[in-house]
C-alpha cells in the first residue's frame, strides 16, 4: 500500500466515526490533552473530519492557528485575528500578524505509527516542527493508527493522544 493509499484509508476510517461516537471520543481526547496545555498553544481548526479539540479550547486558552505563508511554510498567528478561507479548505488568520513562540502545538493527524504522524503529504508541519521547542502533541482517533515507513524528514512527536491512550 502506498503512502497515498494509507492516507486515503485513514481519512476514510476517520470519516466512519459516527457523530455520537465522535463527540464522546473528542471529549475523552480533550480530557487527556488538558493537563499538557500551558502558555501559548498552537492548534488547528479541523477539516475533513479531523478530531475537533479547537471548539473545546478556543474560549479558554491563548490559541494560535496556522497560516500558509507560501507553498512550503506555515506560521502560527493569534486565533483572535479575523479569519478567511485558506488553501486546502482550511480557515486561517487574515493579513500579516506577529508570530509568537509557542509552548504547545496540537497537530492534526491523518494516520499515526508510534509517535510519528502521517499528514496530508505536503510536509508543512514537519518543516515547522523540526525547529520548534514546543511540546508536540498529535491528536487522533484510535482508528487512524496504521503502519508506514518513516522518512528522514518526518518529525517524531512528543506524544500522540487518542480517545483511549497517550503514546510517548
Task: Give an overview of the whole structure.
- Its cofactor is Mg(2+).
- Belongs to the 5-formyltetrahydrofolate cyclo-ligase family.
- Substrate binds at residues 45, 50.
- ATP binds at residues 117-125.
- One of its GO terms (molecular function) is metal ion binding.
- The chain has 168 residues and is an alpha/beta fold.
- It has one domain: Rossmann fold.
- 23% of the residues lie in helices and 25% in strands.
- The protein contains 4 helices and 11 strands, in the order H-H-E-H-E-E-E-E-E-E-E-H-E-E-E.
- A 7-stranded mixed sheet has the order 3-2-1-6-9-10-11. It has a two-stranded antiparallel ribbon with strand order 4-5.
- A hairpin with a 5-residue loop joins strand 4 and strand 5 (91-93).
- The protein is globular.
- The mean pLDDT is 90.
Amino acid at each position: 500500500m502506498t503512502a497515498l493509499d494509507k492516507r486515503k484509508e485513514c481519512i476514510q476510517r476517520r470519516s466512519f466515526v459516527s457523530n455520537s461516537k465522535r463527540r464522546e471520543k473528542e471529549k475523552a481526547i480533550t480530557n487527556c490533552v488538558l493537563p499538557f496545555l500551558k502558555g501559548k498553544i498552537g492548534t488547528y481548526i479541523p477539516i475533513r473530519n479531523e478530531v475537533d479539540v479547537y471548539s473545546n479550547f478556543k474560549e479558554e486558552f491563548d490559541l494560535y492557528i496556522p497560516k500558509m505563508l507560501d507553498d512550503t511554510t506555515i506560521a502560527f498567528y493569534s486565533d483572535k485575528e479575523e479569519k478567511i478561507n485558506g488553501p486546502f479548505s482550511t480557515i486561517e488568520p487574515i493579513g500579516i500578524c506577529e508570530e509568537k513562540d509557542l509552548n504547545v502545538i496540537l497537530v492534526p493527524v491523518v494516520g499515526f505509527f508510534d509517535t510519528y504522524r502521517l499528514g496530508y503529504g505536503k510536509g508543512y508541519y514537519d518543516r515547522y516542527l523540526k525547529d520548534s521547542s514546543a511540546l508536540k502533541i498529535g491528536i487522533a482517533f484510535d482508528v487512524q493508527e496504521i503502519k508506514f515507513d518513516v522518512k528522514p524528514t518526518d518529525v517524531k512527536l512528543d506524544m500522540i493522544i487518542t480517545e483511549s491512550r497517550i503514546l510517548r
